[in-house]
Specification:
14 strands, single chain, alpha/beta, 8-stranded parallel beta sheet, 3-stranded mixed beta sheet
């Protein structure tokens, strides 16, 4: 509803109460409504799901329309990210948020820092989704509140042109609320547990759930060893549980991102159930590392399977886990992805051990032979040593071309000695264009960095601590933080305004009129930053 329509509707409502509501100002109500566009998390989930669907269609038409996000571990971090995006680019289009289970475990668990093994409270995930959207909605309220004050100033100055410009800007206002791709890990239990958690995450506002094919109680970080996968039917039950949760809550175009960890997972906890040769369970079991049984007396307490008419014993570890054949990871990834898409998944996630476009593209090419519009979400992970990986890729490419590499030592390419060299510069250029190139070649619709704000918080805190507690003293803060905030237009330099002080003053005036005791008077030190 347009701003003026809100005013007109509220005016009629007040009139209908025969004078008992005459202390309510219709325009104040209109302002509060505009500042609170999304009433519930489900409103957000439906709104953002539609955005992602449009973006997916735009990517299918042109892979230059890929999308991006950064992982955020606190509402304030997500808020400042979106404020910065609007400031620098004028639009939030194709920019999302990512909610990382790793960062929830490491930073948001009541147990304290935990490894990424699904040991944190499952309720902390929907709680962070709700927190992120609370801060994004507050960013809307803050920015719109400043526009309302500008309207009042224009009216006071008699500037009708500026007033009309601002009214139009309010009606076309772009919210800070954007899609969140939220990590549900391996579902935190069985399919019913997955369904219950998915509901909470959707109710908090998540339009996209990312779920992985690891064993829930053996879950590991995607970039660590010891990963254990489950048979396809077990995983697909959890995918269906997520879809049921979306449909029950009326988010009919909710997005499910299915992640396969098979490239780095060499183990399974179960032998899949198979009814007939060639079915999905049989295909999963075909990757097991087996040895033929020739002596029945040698298999005491072991499990055996029939493979091509032969009795085979899958290799079982003392942990009671079964081992896959070495080198079968890519084939398992391809089967995982095709199977997921054929059973209701919308997007894929292949967890790789390095950011290599052709490795990813090789798998995507095979997937697209069966599902032509297959698309990936890809983790541009801080677990990769991007500098070393890309310098080695350039080194290997040059070696294949027969180029003279005598000035470079492949084992030392991370060294600062190679900064500014021809090889170092080409590697940096490949990193710069990685997302664009991978979107075009490897079917990557969405690029995210899982843990960037974990690292930026640590880096900025280290820089401040070194300066402030050292010789620089207070100048360490002023020069390294505040002066930069002022000159670069960082919103939270006016931290009282950022925390909602001006919004509170507006409300006080709505509620108490001239009797309101407001915080934003002449003696507010925030006025020092007006220039």
């Amino acid at each position: 509803m347009a701003y003026q329509d809100h005013i007109a509707q509220t005016s009629k409502l007040i009139q209908d109460h025969n004078g008992t509501w005459d202390g309510i100002d219709p325009e104040s109500v209109a302002r509060m409504r505009v500042q609170n566009r999304f009433q519930t998390g489900l409103d957000i989930a439906r709104y953002t799901a539609a955005i992602m669907r449009r973006d997916m269609a735009a990517y299918d038409a042109d892979p230059a329309n890929y999308t991006q996000s950064l992982g955020c571990w606190h509402g304030f971090i997500g808020q400042q990210k979106m404020i910065s995006i609007k400031k620098h680019f004028g639009s939030t289009e194709r920019r999302y948020l990512y909610l990382s289970g790793w960062m929830v475990a490491a930073l948001r668990s009541e147990f304290g820092p935990l490894p990424d093994q699904s040991m944190h409270e499952k309720t902390s995930v929907p709680a962070l989704i709700e927190e992120l959207y609370t801060f994004l909605r507050q960013a809307d309220a803050r920015e719109l509140g400043m526009m309302f004050r500008d309207i009042d100033a224009a009216r006071e100055a008699g500037n009708q042109v500026e007033e009309q410009r601002l009214l139009k800007a309010i009606d076309s206002y772009q919210t800070h609320v954007v899609p969140i791709i939220a990590d549900i890990d391996a579902g935190f239990g069985n399919a019913e547990a997955t369904y219950l958690l998915a509901k909470k995450m959707i109710e908090a506002g998540a339009c996209a759930l990312q779920i992985e094919n690891q064993v829930s109680d053996e879950k590991q970080c995607g970039h660590q060893d010891g990963k254990v996968t489950v048979p396809h039917e077990d995983f697909l039950a959890k995918v269906r549980a997520c879809r049921y949760a979306f449909l029950e809550l009326g988010v009919e175009d909710g997005i499910i991102v299915t992640r396969t960890d098979s490239l780095g997972a060499g183990l399974t906890k179960q032998i899949a159930f198979s009814k007939e040769p060639g079915d999905l369970g049989d295909q999963y079991n075909a990757f097991l590392d087996c040895e033929e049984v020739t002596d029945l007396n040698s298999i005491n307490g072991d499990v055996v399977i029939n493979r091509d008419g032969k009795l085979m014993r899958p290799k079982r570890l003392p942990s009671n886990l079964y081992q896959f054949r070495a080198g079968s990871g890519e084939d398992r990834c391809v089967l995982d992805c095709i199977t997921s898409l054929q059973h209701g998944a919308d997007l894929l996630w292949i967890e790789t051990e390095k950011p290599h476009i052709e490795q990813i593209a090789g798998m995507v090419d095979r997937i697209r032979q069966v599902v032509p519009n297959a698309k990936l979400v890809y983790n541009n992970s801080p677990s990769f040593n991007w500098t070393l990986n890309f310098r080695q890729q350039v080194f290997d490419a040059w070696a294949a071309q027969g180029k003279d590499l005598s000035a470079y030592d492949r084992a030392r390419l991370m060294s600062v000695d190679y900064d500014g060299t021809e090889l170092g510069d080409e590697a940096d250029d490949r990193i710069r264009t990685f997302q664009r190139d991978a979107a075009a070649r490897a079917g990557i619709f969405h690029h995210l960095i899982t843990l960037p704000t974990y690292h930026t918080a640590a880096l900025s805190t280290d820089n401040l601590a070194r300066e402030y507690f050292g010789e620089a003293g207070m100048l360490g803060y002023v020069r390294g933080v505040q002066r930069k905030e002022i000159r670069e237009g960082i919103a939270c330099v006016k931290h009282q305004n950022m925390s909602g002080s001006d919004i509170g003053d507006d409300h006080k005036e709505y509620f108490a009129g001239e009797a309101a005791l407001k915080a934003g008077g002449a003696h507010n030190t925030m006025n020092q930053f007006a220039a």
